[in-house]
């Protein structure tokens, strides 16, 4: 007979937390936080280390099951191991102090992320807030004004909103269906999730609808990946499409 397995103890938080303790490894993880798979050379650039050094850091991240590697021909690409790792990064970002910007590269990166970025695979930054505001003004979403209200419990910066006021209207569901969003994302019965954007201090759309919308905007060519990891660029086609959002318009 097989020997009975011993019961599992408490989670070893310190063990996995040690992988986040090095700033070079956290830069690698943040570079992968938009869901893309990147080669070691690109990750070395983001971490600010040599290729030989980033290999050691990637080995530690692999050992702690924070990233996984994919072989494509002769090349190896790395991506986050799961959505749970994204969640940990966002949670740590909410607790961490902001570092001063001391270089042009940091300034450029900060500007790109404030303009438009992905957050939990939905659209954030100025663009994410703007799209959410247009949808509210057009009557596609109802239940609030999109403003951050720090006096309300659960409306914390850079955090998933705890309110249940936002809902998709029938008009909004019809308009987004014309954009090609899947029916399962257009549930009018459940409250919509949102996040309080940490750069804009306003709400942007989150949850299943936010993820489906962002994915569809990429497919339509309305937004594209920026050169800075997690950053997003609005295309001329997307600018025209978002400008056309209105009470009686549903531009495909």
Domain unit count:
2
- The proportion of residues in beta strands is 15-25%
- Distance from N terminus to C terminus (CA atoms, Å) equals 64 Å
Strand ordering within the main sheet: 1-3-2
Uncertain regions spanning at least 5 consecutive residues: none
What are the secondary-structure elements, in order, as H or E?
HHEHHEEHHEEHEEEHEEHEEH
| SS-derived structural category | alpha+beta
Question: How many helices does DSSP assign?
Answer: 10
Overall pLDDT:
84
- CA radius of gyration is 20 Å
The general outline is: globular
Percent in helix:
40-55%
Largest sheet: 3 strands, antiparallel
Organism: Saccharopolyspora oryzae
Protein name: Helix-turn-helix transcriptional regulator
Domain HTH arsR-type: 5-100
What does this entry look like structurally?
The protein has 252 residues and is an alpha+beta fold. Helices cover 43% and strands 15% of the residues. It has helices at residues 13-20, 23-31, 40-47, 51-63, 83-95, 104-115, 125-137, 170-179, 207-220, 236-243, and strands at residues 38-39, 67-72, 75-80, 117-119, 122-124, 141-142, 159-160, 167-168, 194-196, 203-205, 223-225, 232-234. The strands form 5 sheets. The chain has a 3-stranded antiparallel sheet with strand order 1-3-2. Strands 7-9-10 form a 3-stranded antiparallel sheet. α2 crosses α3 (40-47). The longest helix has 14 residues, at 207-220.
